[in-house]
Give the backbone structure.
Amino acid sequence: MMAALRHTPLTFVRMFCLTLVVTMTMARKLRDVDTLINTCIDSKHHKSAPGPEGSLFTTCHQWKNRSCCTEDTTRLIHESSPYNFNYDHCSRVKSMSSECKRHFMLDHCFYECSPNVGPWVVSENRLWRRERYWGVPLCAIDCELWFTACADDVTCTDNWTNNFRWLNMTGDCPTRGSCLTNYCPVNSTCQTFKKIYRTARNFCEKVWDNAWKYAEPTTPCMHLQFNQSAINPNDAVALHYAQIIAGSQMHSCNLVWFSIQLAVWAFINRILTVAS
């Protein structure tokens, strides 16, 4: 009995410390919800945190109330490209139609400006970014409209993130720094979007290497375009998934907490047994 009691203070200290760690962890997970719904990815042109902008250029204007991009970035999106990306990589066959390009502008505005991607951010090791988003649920209607607008346009590869060759561009460099731009893969053929991708789902999920995930109408999902005067509908979507993530993490903490309670109960029961 005396041996058991000698170890009692040390054991209770350990139990107290473990309890404190779990409590702090649970509080941190609650704060993570706010972080997940107010996140800018770590990338070349993104702000460190979302905030209002005085104005954003044309297609990106809907994000100006809470944005991860600046007006200068949105101007680059429309007038050239922040990354010297050439949408007319198959211009020898056909230049991209204005309607198709408009949808890609909406997509690019989302990428640069949206503060709602926290639940899907993953690490990536590229020269221009350390993070990207992966598997963001894109509403089926947005995806279908995008694919329909581009169905008769042409491209030479399905994965625009990984498959292009990046070489020095011919002519004047439109941006400061690197003048690399994208060229079609060797031995590739320019074909229509509908021939290369076949379906809207395949297009939206492949074109930017699984940045998007096609979401059925019953699934909470992101919109590329919304009325600026109204509440950003993507805020509620980000909150929905952030709470799921936090809930899963909290469940893990609750399991640990339950295990601690069992351990404490077993220890007290042992002391009482010895004492009796």
Remarks:
- Strands lie at 121-126, 129-133, 136-139, 154-155, 165-168, 180-183, 191-192, 212-215.
- Confidence is low (pLDDT under 50) at residues 1-8, 12-30, 250-262.
